[in-house]
Queue: 3 jobs
Job 1
Amino acid sequence: MTDKPTRRDLMKPVQLLGLAFVAAVFAGVVTLVSMGFFQNRVAGQSAHALMIGAIVAGITFIATLLIIALLVLAVDPAQVAKPLDRPVLLPKDAPDAAAPAAPAPDAPSASPGSPEPAPETGEGTDPPEGAPRP
């Protein structure tokens, strides 16, 4: 036997069907409650609410089953068991964020996208409050 989990082990079909069934029951009950099935209504309205609730539950069951099955197909079983030692959202060729690179001694300390530092001569700065402006 191999130590690799199979796709069936990752998401068993019974779990897939169970999750779709729970979603369908929830959608059917919400539909029945919203249509007033549990209130005193005319006899024809209760049958209509049951029919609409069953239709909504069936559509929800099929849609949930289809969506989850397609999402399971998108997962490579080999990638699930593989440990990640880098941030997930960074590109694969990005340098490691744990070790920041030291700037070169002759390079300016500001990054290219940051605003330039204020000049040291005092030009471009606001005077203290109450001081006359030139």
Note: The two ends are 85 Å apart (CA to CA).
Job 2
Amino acid sequence: MPLKKKKKKKAAPRKTVKRKPVKKPARKKIVKKTRPKKITKRPAKGKKRKENLIGIITHYFPKVSAAVIKLKAPLTVGDTIKIKGHTTDFIEPVNSIQIDRVPITAAKKGQEIGLLVNSRVRQHDKVYKV
């Protein structure tokens, strides 16, 4: 007797259930409160020195501790200068100026001068007259 194959029953179609939409609470708008700006003057802490940019360091010779400065304004022996850079910040008087190893007393705008300094300076440090 041959085996009879069992017939598969068809699955009943699934019923789709309609769900009620869930209402999310409305977002509250955040309003930033702005305060009126107060205009206050800071009290002066002693005398502030007026600084004028007179040049930029182009080279430094560590053995003789001398800097080469490209001048943007005139400079004379006896002036006080401030050298400020990324890691440099000091004030010192100008004791000697040289151009091509010849000592001079005053230098004009546009000249490159050699200047003795007490501390290490780096290229692109700014030189101010104080």
Note: Strands lie at 52-61, 66-71, 75-76, 80-84, 89-93, 97-99, 102-104, 106-107, 112-116, 126-129.
Job 3
Amino acid sequence: MRHNRLGRRTLSTGKDRDKSVAEIIRELKQSGSPQNDYRRHSLAIHGLICAKCGQEFDERNRHLLTVHHKDGNHKNNPPDGSNWENLCIYCHEDEHSRGLLADYLDNNRGSNGTD
């Protein structure tokens, strides 16, 4: 195992060690990130609007619009977009924090003598 200049461990294979940074970046851009592919696809299907609060977005602020996986599985990306909904960053955070709050309340219910 190798360490980078910040002291973090890095993994490298023999063939990757011989590549330049420019070659690695070029390969990453050509391969395309699955995350970007489903995000682009979801925005095209569902439009630039938050499914929860209804805020509309345009090219200037589309980076504030995220893709939420309804079933919680980020690997479940059907081509029809049925597992996605576009949410603004605030509604997306709210969606995930609701689940955390519910789990917390369920785990603590009854521990203080109340039901």
Note: The chain has a mean pLDDT of 80.
